[in-house]
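During the second half of the funding period, the structural biology subgroup turned its attention to how the target accommodates small molecules. The most pressing case was nicotinamide-adenine-dinucleotide, which had performed well in the primary screen but for which no bound structure existed. We therefore specified the complex as follows and requested a full 3D prediction, including the ligand pose.
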Amino acid sequence: MTESRVALVTGAGQGIGRAIALRLASDGFDVAISDLPRAEESAFTLRKDIEALGRRATFAPADVSKAADVSAMVATVVSDLGRLDVTVANAGVAKMEPLLDTTPESWDLTFAVNTRGVFLTWQAAARQYIAQGHGGKLIGAASQAAYRAAGALPAYSASKWAVRGLTQAAAQEFAPHGIKVNSYAPGIVDTPLWREVPEVFEALVATIPLGRAQQPTDVADLVSFFASPAADYMTGQTVIMDGGMIFS
Ligand code: NAD
């Protein structure tokens, strides 16, 4: 019997990460769910949903901004599920805050999760892929704000531009190891991230050419493609999928 392939998804407790974890399980991956320790209950429910699809699942908690947590996360995945093949650095935070009101602490938090979190997660996963010797996929959460910054989200937009840059650099460094690196740039996705600003969400949805809010499953479809052999000749790309709001 061939060994199952294993995917790790950070920020999988809710929203886009949850949809990605379920989609990759449907695609045949065993799935490691990662999120902050406080997400244990939702991770438990997700684990049951993945197991109901006939795949194995485990919870590997981590604050992705902390190097020791991220190393422990990858070690847990390998010890519980045996290997690692696809890593989705999805965890992210967004705070609507004009530049004039942004404190250094708030700026640092945004970059710690959205940018350093991707760097640490990919670094730990790439070390594991190289040790395994058969390549792998690194996938990251960018945003349409990585192409056209949102005026209300300066720190967030800058942190996502950085993910786009890291995607290009990592793709070059890791190509000789057979590791492909791509990121997704969604538009306005209906997740708890917008919970505190429902009126902004509705106003933005009204501007989407395809006429509806993006669903987490739409993003999961793109990640499923990145993870599949169909995307094996693709690396270093940050792909906009936003219902036609902006163009790369
Ligand atoms: P969400 O807020 O619904 O979920 C984010 C998850 O990340 C949560 O489960 C949270 O606990 C986790 N998280 C936060 N800080 C963490 C940390 N330090 N360590 C580990 N986990 C942490 O967000 P979402 O809408 O599902 O967004 C997922 C990703 O997609 C984010 O990177 C976000 O920036 C990006 N994105 C979202 C949208 C959107 O419209 N919702 C658009 C473009 C990009």
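Two results from this model are relevant to the next phase. The CA atoms of residues 79 and 134 lie 18 Å apart. The mean pLDDT is 97.
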